[in-house]
Every structure is written in structure tokens, then in C-alpha cells.
Amino acid sequence: MKLEGKTVFITGAAQGLGQGITEALLERGAKVCIADLNREKGEETVNQFQQRFGKENVFFIKADVTNEKEFEDAFKEAVSRLGNIDIMVNNAGIMDESKWELMIQINVTSLVRGTNLAIGHMNKVTGGKGGLIINTASVAGFAPGVSFPVYGGTKHAVIGFTTSWAANPNVESMGIRFACLCPSPADTALLDLKDHQGMMVSQFTKFINEVLGVAPVSKIVEGFITLVEKDDNNGALLLVGKNEGIQFVNRFYDPMASLPKQKQSDAAKTS
Ligand SMILES: NC(=O)c1ccc[n+]([C@@H]2O[C@H](COP(=O)([O-])OP(=O)(O)OC[C@H]3O[C@@H](n4cnc5c(N)ncnc54)[C@H](O)[C@@H]3O)[C@@H](O)[C@H]2O)c1
Ligand SMILES: CCCCC[C@H](O)/C=C/C=C\C/C=C\C/C=C\CCCC(=O)O
């Protein structure tokens, strides 16, 4: 998808990866609405971007994605100001096991809500213009991470949810594509971890700094752009990190593979 002239709604972009992604979108001629809980940082970010890219091309709406009404109102306002939303980026997320219920709400429940809002707006079957939905998962959605079991669980959920939508046979007629950005550790405030936020946090921090490696935000942004610009990206999982570089990955076990050959061919005929 070419980004020039496209309209984007992104959550959690007052700082960190979302802020970097927004900058890259604006550089390529897109118009962006940032929705974030943090009014101070959100307004500061948008003021800077408006000076560089023009007031009409980027704006901020204060919204807590766990608040159903605030999130829906923000999305409606963005549609009304931009005329349409071509790309939805559900990016807001936290990593704090001491707030595990809130973390599930932000990382999963609100991401589902954002996806549903975007589907309702974009669906060609009901008068929409189609579009692309990018959900931010993580490398933690592919592997066990002993220090942050709930965080890891939320990111597995993001991948399962997004790829299940992508596999829906109706997505072609709906004109919507679904994909996940899966960053490895990146240099943002998310990784300023306090001991109470997980288990064995100091060992974990040592592990990511010395073994996994921490990527600059710019690397993750490069991965995001690669994912968005790829035309056949429905169901894509883009892994990006310091050691991984940028790569499309496949994590699936196909339940059909364990069926006897005859049943596989019968199932293929009916699907
Ligand atoms: N930084 C990493 O190492 C890393 C790696 C993989 C995936 N991720 C994912 O990337 C996404 C962005 O993380 P980041 O590293 O930029 O973190 P960050 O903490 O720098 O930014 C997160 C943003 O989300 C916003 N936010 C938090 N709760 C919100 C809510 N309820 N409503 C609206 N906005 C809210 C914050 O205000 C902040 O602006 C998250 O989903 C995170 O899980 C991060
Ligand atoms: C206790 C110290 C050693 C922990 C090893 C850990 O369990 C292994 C992890 C292997 C892969 C990565 C899995 C999870 C990473 C989790 C978070 C990374 C930072 C944030 C993010 O990338 O989303």
C-alpha cells in the first residue's frame, strides 16, 4: 500500500514506537490521528509534528483505550476530521505483571475493540472503502518469556486474534487486510522495568540487553513500513529486532497435517 494521502488512526503514539511510526507515516505523506491516554506527551508530540508536517496532517485526541466510550468517540471524531480511515494501528500496550488485569484490558480487550471499530468503518460489504489493520504484537507472542507470563500471553492472543481474522474467507469481499507487527525488545520507556513489574526482572533485563539485544525505535519503524507497504500482507507476521533484522515469519501448526491423507483431501474439497 502506498502511504501518500492515506489516513491513519493509531493508538498509544504519544511516545515510543507509536511516535516513531507516526513520524514515518507523515514523512511519506499520510495524515495521522494519534489517540493516547497521555495528554501532555500527546500534545507535545503533535505540536512538534504539526510544525514539521503541517497542522492539517496530524492531530491528537486524548483517549484511554480501556474506556469504551472515549475510544469510540475518538475513532468517530477521527473519521469525521479525516473523512475516512485507511489504516488502523492498534499499538497501545503496557508490560506490568502487577497490573495484569489492566494489561489484558489494554493489550487484548481494547485491541479487539479497536479492530472491531475499524472493521465496522472499513467493511466494503456495508459501504466502507476497505483498509488495513495492523496490531502490535511482540516477539513475546512467539516464545515463552518466564518473567512476564501475562504480557507474553497477551501478545500470543494478539497474534491468534489477528491471524484468525485474516483467515476469514470473507475478508476479500470486506476489502480488509489484517497483520501483526512483532517487535523484539526496542529502546522505549516500556523497558524501564521496575522489580514489581515482573519476576526476576534484573536477570530478564540483563538477558535482553546482553543476549536478545535492544533495537533502536528506527529499526522497528523500518519493519512497520515494510509490513504496510507489502501488498499481499493479509495474515502477515513481521518480526523485527536487533538480531532478527526484518523478516516475515510463520508460527503455525496446521491441525489438518495430522489427519490421515484421505481425510485431508476430503477436508480440502469442503473448505
Ligand atoms: N518497546 C519494546 O521493547 C516492545 C517490543 C515489542 C512490542 N512492543 C509493543 O509496542 C507497543 C508500544 O510500546 P512502546 O514500547 O512504544 O511503549 P511506550 O510505553 O513507550 O508507549 C506506550 C504508549 O501507549 C500509551 N498507552 C498506555 N496505556 C494506554 C491506554 N489505556 N490508552 C491509550 N494509550 C495508552 C502510553 O501513554 C504510551 O504513549 C506496545 O503494544 C508494546 O507491547 C514494545
Ligand atoms: C529470567 C531471565 C531469563 C529470561 C529468559 C526469557 O524467558 C526468554 C525469553 C525468550 C524470548 C523472548 C520472550 C519474551 C520477551 C518478552 C519481552 C521482551 C520485551 C518487550 C517485548 O519485546 O514485547
Explained architecture:
An eight-stranded mixed sheet has the order 3-2-1-4-5-6-7-8, sandwiched between helices. The chain has nine helices and eight strands. The chain has a single domain, classed as Rossmann fold. It is globular, with a radius of gyration of 19 Å. Helix content is 45%, strand content 16%. It has helices at residues 16-27, 39-53, 68-82, 100-122, 149-166, 171-174, 201-212, 217-229, 261-270, and strands at residues 7-11, 31-36, 58-62, 87-90, 131-136, 176-183, 237-241, 245-248. It is α/β, with parallel strands linked by helices. The structure holds nicotinamide-adenine-dinucleotide (NAD) and the ligand CCCCC[C@H](O)/C=C/C=C\C/C=C\C/C=C\CCCC(=O)O. Residues 11-12, 14-18, 36-38, 64-66, 91-95, 106, 136, 138, 183, 185-186, 188-191 line the site of nicotinamide-adenine-dinucleotide.
Task: Offer a concise description of the structure.
The protein is of the alpha/beta class and 271 residues long.
List the helices and strands and how they pair.
Blueprint lengths: L6 E5 L4 H12 L3 E6 L2 H15 L4 E5 L5 H15 L4 E4 L9 H23 L8 E6 L12 H18 L4 H4 L1 E8 L17 H12 L4 H13 L7 E5 L3 E4 L12 H10 L1
Parallel strand pairs: 1-2, 1-4, 2-3, 4-5, 5-6, 6-7
Antiparallel strand pairs: 7-8
Helix pairs in contact: 1-8, 3-4, 4-5
This protein binds nicotinamide-adenine-dinucleotide (NAD) and the ligand CCCCC[C@H](O)/C=C/C=C\C/C=C\C/C=C\CCCC(=O)O.
The ligand CCCCC[C@H](O)/C=C/C=C\C/C=C\C/C=C\CCCC(=O)O binds next to helix 7.
Keywords for this entry:
single chain, 271 residues, alpha/beta, Rossmann fold, eight-stranded mixed beta sheet, 9 helices, 8 strands, 16% strand, binds nicotinamide-adenine-dinucleotide, binds the ligand CCCCC[C@H](O)/C=C/C=C\C/C=C\C/C=C\CCCC(=O)O
